[in-house]
Amino acid sequence: MPSTLSSFYIVQHTFKLDAGLDWWTAHQAAAEVWQTRQSKQEELGFHCHSFVPISAVGPIYCVWEVKPNIPASEFQAFLDGEHALGMGMMNNSASLVELSLTGAPPYPRHFVPPATTPGRVSITFEEQAWFQGQINAQVGEDAAVALAEGAPPFQSPSKMPTGEEQEWLERQISEIREADAWLEQQAVEAAIKEAAQEAQKAATMAANAASAAQKAASAASAATAAQKLAAVKIGKDQAGQTEAN
Length: 245
Description:
This protein is an alpha+beta fold. Helices cover 57% and strands 13% of the residues. It is elongated and about 135 Å long.
């Protein structure tokens, strides 16, 4: 069964005779050149996670990630070719990282396995550590049961996850994250809806207040007009009494 997980290599790059100065000159070229080169590398199935020069004359150590099912010979041909870090000016010695001994890749995977659901991301170190703890706990429990039943205990109370176990875990984590993202989106939409309702209530209250203020202003205006009419009437009455006298 073809693997769906990428591989990691530690590569020692050493300059060919008198090539160091030319390489560093080329390395200091415009960033666009290296972005184009990196895009080509990833198109071919290779990604450089770290670049660690020991000195200007080398060596340089890098951690490379290689897409699943690319043989070591193809990776070596890439390293020695024009698209890799050395640009033909380095000797390159690649050593495969044995992930079964570490339980996790040295870096989060750049080339993630195909997802069963959209939005999939790579497993993190914390998730891998949790998974390893679950395996160790289960193996330890199995050893205790075997010892209680009189069977010889395991020589080692721990084991590393297989590729299939890690793939399964990554699928579970992806689905959990999908569910969390959906719930978060629902919460955001609910909050937006609630805020809109509150804004509508506030607008209604403001409109009611404005209407009440308008009515109060109209009433005040009517009262003022009535007072003026009353004053005019009083003035006329007083004038009539004066004429009568």
